[in-house]
Amino acid sequence: MKIDAAKVMELVRTVKPLFLDHEQAARIEVKGLADFVTQVDFKVQEMIQDGLMQLYPDIQFMGEEKDNSDIDFTGPVWILDPVDGTTNLIHDYRNSALSLAFCDNRQLELGIIYQPYTDEMFHAVRGGGAWLNGRPIHVSRVDTMERSLIAIGTSPYDHGLADRNFRDFKEVFLRCSDIRRNGSAALELAHVACGRTDAYFEQVLRPWDFAAGMLLVQEAGGTVTDYDGEPLDVSTPCQVAAANGLIGEELLAILGK
Ligand code: IPD
Ligand code: CA
Ligand code: CA
């Protein structure tokens, strides 16, 4: 199925005022341990779902804030995280993004990540490269762990993973220049894709967290696998290790232990 990426990005841009609406961001519900959702999340999802329905009525829609049990991944599916970085949104940390992917029979075809605070629109088309505001992007060329800047994700909704996480963070920290944690998995992947960081890893991410970013990193020349170097399945939660391709093996040697 052919998708008009420019049209979809035009739709995505319309959510900006919603991200900047402090009143709606302060209307918070608890989903689980350390896990919140705001009216902004719901409104962004509704706006994108309605818009995509009008453009492509036959494509299924998976969104973080809805029940997705009926999605058939052998067919075409949109995968949306309306607000990736809700904790940041609640704290006005200004580091949240919309993440939207399109896949067909589990193959990613299009990935879009939009950062409304900086107006940065990242997108990638399978076989067509990765772009930031219309300019081609590439992963970094840093080729040693010692010189690398590595982003970590804490999987904040599963404290059972904390021991393993903090062991990995220490191992990686002792071998690289420094580590970063920005609170949005989608933006972390976008930053690997455009070379701001050299790698990023997180123990559990859901399809809407990583689908668009995975295609961005791959189309920008990097690699995305689980901690054992195995390919990811966009229909299920996954371990995610993304890297520039030059330090990927060294990183996996630490994480795969
Ligand atoms: C979360 C963010 C966070 C990451 C979590 C995600 P949410 O998404 O991407 O950075 O550490 O694993 O679940 O809940 O803000 O959409
Ligand atoms: Ca998310
Ligand atoms: Ca979210």
UniProtKB/TrEMBL annotation:
InterPro entries with a match to the protein in the record: IMPase, Inositol_monophosphatase-like, Inositol_monophosphatase_CS
Cofactors (names): Mg(2+)
Xref: SUPFAM superfamilies: Carbohydrate phosphatase (SSF56655)
Keywords annotated in UniProt: Hydrolase, Magnesium, Metal-binding
Family: Belongs to the inositol monophosphatase superfamily.
EC number: 3.1.3.25
Cited PROSITE patterns: IMP_2
Organism this protein belongs to: Enterocloster hominis
One matching Pfam family: Inositol_P
Membrane-spanning residues: none
GO MF terms held by the record: hydrolase activity
The protein, known as: Inositol-1-monophosphatase
Lineage: Bacteria, Bacillati, Bacillota, Clostridia, Lachnospirales
Catalytic activity: a myo-inositol phosphate + H2O = myo-inositol + phosphate
